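This week, study the protein below.
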Amino acid sequence: MESRAAGSTAAGFSGGAMRFPPPTRDGGRGRAWEYINPRMQGRIGARGAMRGGRAGAPSLPVETLRKYGIVEMAKRKLIPYPGMEADLEEALKREEVRSLSVDDLVFLFKHQNELCDKCGRCCRIESPIHVSPHELSRIAEHLRVPYGELKRRLKLIPLRDGTYHLVGRPCPFLKGNLCSIYEVRPGVCRLYPAWYLYTQFVEDKPAQVDLECGVIKKLFAYKLAAAVAVIKLEREEPELFNKMVAGARELWEKFMPGEERMKDMPVEVQFMWLERWHRIFRTYVEGGRAHA
């Protein structure tokens, strides 16, 4: 039986309701959760709800990006040039670099597989795993044990809708840093961390961001490095930069009003809409013709 890294995620989409309960505190054993409000249509989420005793902030503090090595990661993505450090400091001041956007979540859904460090951290943090009877049945079949016996072995908390929370850490299926049920792992495991952030994003809640997760660190490093490149382009080729900004603004105004209606749509439709917007925007920036 092939086993893969427990932290690896799947690029595929799985519909249906998924629950990601707030992570519990772990007594100082390396938890690195930060809370930031999502940005909907370029605006800060207005709700500002309290989660886990902390208020959601519009963006991560600059000191936090430094603390978790994200600034150094961004530097390694850039080819050094005179004035780069000054551009880097300017980029760090930009709130969009330190917050989440629609484009960021689409990026995660598409690329979290390749960004994953396969460290198994997500299998060790203390949040319960939401699992359905169907998923338990698939796991039992994969392990070749009776369904009832598997349920007795696991620490399951029944929920009102007939599903369960699998509690206890590390995950009982974690072997070293490998997932022993990788092929049939629950949907929440397949889509972490993108789905976790996405469900909070569309509900306009402060997102819980684990800055020890390699996927999240690489996302913010990518955003920071990209911002530095934009600052350099704006200074050295202002005409090209202005054309790109004007085109992006035109596309934004044409397509983004639909975002206000996203929350009332099924989750699958929301995700397809985000993908469509991402494809159109990237095609334009890269100089091609967009196809809806």
Summary: Residues 1-33, 37-57, 287-292 have pLDDT under 50 and may be disordered.
